[in-house]
Amino acid sequence: MARPAASAPAARHYLMCRPTYFAIEYAINPWMDPAAGVDRERAIRQWEGLRDLYLRLGHRVSEIEPVDGLPDMVFAANGALVVDGRVYGARFASAERTPEGPAYLDWFRKAGYTETREPKHVNEGEGDFVTLDDVVLAATGFRTEAAAHQEAERFLGRPVVTLQLVDPRFYHLDTALFALSGREVAYYPGAFSEGSRQVLRALYPDALLATEEDAAVLGLNAVCAGNDIVVAAEATALADRLRELGRTVHPVEMDELRKAGGGAKCCTLELRDTPDPV
Ligand code: ARG
Q1: Could you say which DSSP state residue 4 is in?
Q2: Which Pfam families match (predicted)?
C-alpha cells in the first residue's frame, strides 16, 4: 500500500495568546527576574513573527483573548492538553497563574469542544505532556503532579509515561524534550533523573541528544510539523544537527519571551482534531 512521503506537508492547528499584557511581575522559575523588566512591544513583535511563520507554513492559528493581570497567559502550551479532540484542562501549580486554567477551558467550550475535563490534579498542560503516536510522555518534578499523568491517561485513553525532571532551569518537559516525529524525540539528558534517562534510552535509542548550550537557550522548546522545525535562533548546534537529518529549520527570535522562561513551543498549544472550525 502506498504510504505518504515522510516529508508530506502536515498542516496543524495551533492556539496562541497575544502577549498584550506580558510582564514579569513574579518569579516562578529561575529565568524570571521581576527587577529586570521586559520590552513588551518587542515581545509582541517576536510573538507575531512566530504566528506569521506558522501561517506561512500553512498551519491554522486560533487566538484566545489575553486577560489583563495574567502576564504569563502568552504561554498557551500550559493552557490544556488536547488529544483526539479531548481537552484535558490545566490546573496551575502557582497561585499567580491559577486563573488561566478556567480561562483556557472556557475558550474550548465556546469553540465547540464537548469532551473537556476540569482536572483534579495539578498539571500545566502541554508544557508537561508531549504527545507521540503510541505514548504521551509526561513530566513531574517541578509543576505537574504524577497523579495528573494517571488522570490524563484515563481521560485520553492513551498510555502515559512518567519522566522526572531534575534541573530547575528546565522545569517543564517542553523545555527539555520535543517530538521530532510521532516516533522520535530530541532531548537534553541533563534535565532528567538517571531513571528517566534510562527510560528515554530504552524507548528512543536513536534520539537526538542536545547539548547543554542548546538547552540553555531553550532550544528544546521547538515545534515540529512534518519536516519543518521551528527552533530558537541561538540553538545553532541543534539546528545544524537537524539540518544534517534533512530537516528544514526555521530559526525564531524569542529572547524577550525567554526572560519569562518560555520559547516558541511554550507559545503554542497544538489542537489535535478540532470538532468544528474555530
Ligand atoms: N513564566 C512561565 C512559567 O513559569 C513560563 C511558562 C513557559 N511555558 C512552557 N510551556 N514551558 O510558568
Answers
A1: -
A2: DDAH_eukar
* pLDDT of the residue at 274: 61
Q: Which pLDDT tens digit goes with each residue over 57-107?
A: 999 999 999 999 999 999 999 999 999 999 999 999 999 999 999 999 999
Ligand 1 pocket: which of 14, 29, 130 to mutate (most atoms within 8 A of CB): 29
* Residue 211 vs residues 58, 60, 177, 183, 219: alpha-carbon distances, Å: 31, 32, 12, 21, 9
The per-residue pLDDT for 1 is: 34
pLDDT tens readout for residues 236-265: 999 999 999 999 999 999 999 999 999 999
CATH number of the domain at 13-270, out of 3.40.50.2300, 1.10.3720.10, 3.40.630.40, 3.75.10.10?
Answer: 3.75.10.10
Q: Where are the domains of the chain?
A: 13-270
Q: Which of 70, 78, 126 to mutate to test the pocket of ligand 1 (most atoms within 8 A of CB)?
A: 78
Active site residues: 172, 266
Selection from 262, 160, 255, 162 nearest residue 220 by Cα: 262
pLDDT band at 8; cut points 50, 70, 90: very low
Tell me the pTM: 0.95
The ipTM (two decimal places) reads 0.97
Q: What is the 7 CA–ligand 1 centroid distance (Å)?
A: 31
d(CA 123, CA 58): 30
Give Cα separations from 37 to 18, 100, 257 (angstroms): 18, 22, 11
Cα(175) to centroid(ligand 1), Å: 9
